[in-house]
Request: fold
Amino acid sequence: MNHNGKPNLTTRSIQPENQESPIHFIKKWETPLSYFYRRNHFPYPILNQYNYWLQVIDGQSKKRYIHLTELLAMPTSTLTVPLECAGNKRANFSPKVYGEQWEAGAISQGKWTGVPLRNLLNDTELTMEAQEIVFEGADLGKKPGTEGIVPYKRSLPLEKALHPDTLVAFQYNDQPLSVKHGHPFRLIVPNWYAMASVKWLRKIEIINHRFSGPFQTDDYMYYPNENNDQGEFPVTTLNVNSTIQQPLNYSILNSGTHKVEGIAWTGRGKIKEVQVSFDNGQTWTKANLSRSGDSDYSWIRWSLVREFTNIGEYTILSRAVDSSGRVQPDSPYWNQKGYGYNAVSKVHVKVE
Reply:
């Protein structure tokens, strides 16, 4: 907490800057910019006038440039979308894995305004051979295991790239994107982990083969075996997940009535229900759900009022169920790089 009694971001690293949202204290549907988590692989790029031009290269290697002012004049879409780092909750894996030890705050949500990517590509030649679209950010630096300086680059399969809700965004919560969150434009890819939502977007290229950059085929891959890379597959769709926001883990509560509350989200369908247990999973009770009315992608808020009459220790669990039938598992899907943690959310409390 700062001296005004307001929460702060939790610093995971300074260079590059990686900071966690105070998720347990976020009650708004739209995360205020100052509380939006920060995830970077490299130092922030130094931006100049050239960054206001977006280069588009079609399947015939023809280039064209779109200026921010052109983008602002196009028809726009506004979507409330949560962005979750693929490493969110990595600190909970057992055995431990290397990487930023995110707890539950590498997720934030807000209102993104931009131009559907497919509208930007209307004048672009999409050949029959086109397979993927590659997105390059202005951030670059040295990456372990690669030679020289590399930019942050990712690709999307054609179907996902051309979905009407995949946006080239230039506003967050009705304000221009901040420099720390991708100014002047960034990609927004709903339902996928946020590594796909490339910041400081400067180049879009249509290719007729699989892209194999280091942030595509090395990082952001599930490696399920501890001692080898067999069985690997890419990180894409958000897992069904929930977080208990209140009470905080290892809180001491007075006996009486308390509100248990949190958020839940998914990358497939919608959250159908959230179940809460006060006896370490022996019995479950459905929570009350509250939805944001303006988005198919928004997280839901859930809550349950519980009377704690007996003195003692309690383990509170939450698990979300989505409309595609996915349920949060008791144990996470362990993988070498610690992606996609979505085991049931758990807090311990003592009632005195």
Summary: The radius of gyration is 21 Å.
